[in-house]
Amino acid sequence: MNSPQNFNLINGIFSAEDGKDILMQLLNHKIQFHQRKNMSAYERTCENDAHSTKRLAELHEVISNL
C-alpha cells in the first residue's frame, strides 16, 4: 500500500474577495465532478452514486454558508 502524501493546493495571502473566489471555483469544480459521477452511475445502473449524492449536499451547504 502506498504511504499517504500531502499536497499544497492553495498557498498564498489573498484578499477576502480573491480568497472567496478561489474557494468558490474549487467548490464548483468539485460539484461538477460529483454531478458527472452521479450521471455516469445513473447511466450504468439507473441509480445515483450514494457518495456523490452525499457530497453534493455537503458542498451546496458549504456554499450557502459562505
Describe the structure.
The chain has 66 residues and is mainly α. 68% of the residues lie in helices and 0% in strands. The protein contains two helices and no strands. It has helices at 16-45, 50-64. It starts with 15 loop residues before the first helix and ends with a helix. The model has no long low-confidence stretch (mean pLDDT 94).
Low-confidence stretches: none
Q: Share of helix among residues?
A: 55-70%
| Whole-number mean pLDDT | 94
Per DSSP, the total helix count is 2
Summarize the structure in short.
The chain has helices spanning 16-45, 50-64. By secondary structure, it is mainly alpha-helical.
Task: List the defining traits of the structure above.
single chain; flat; 0% strand; 68% helix; 66 residues; mainly alpha
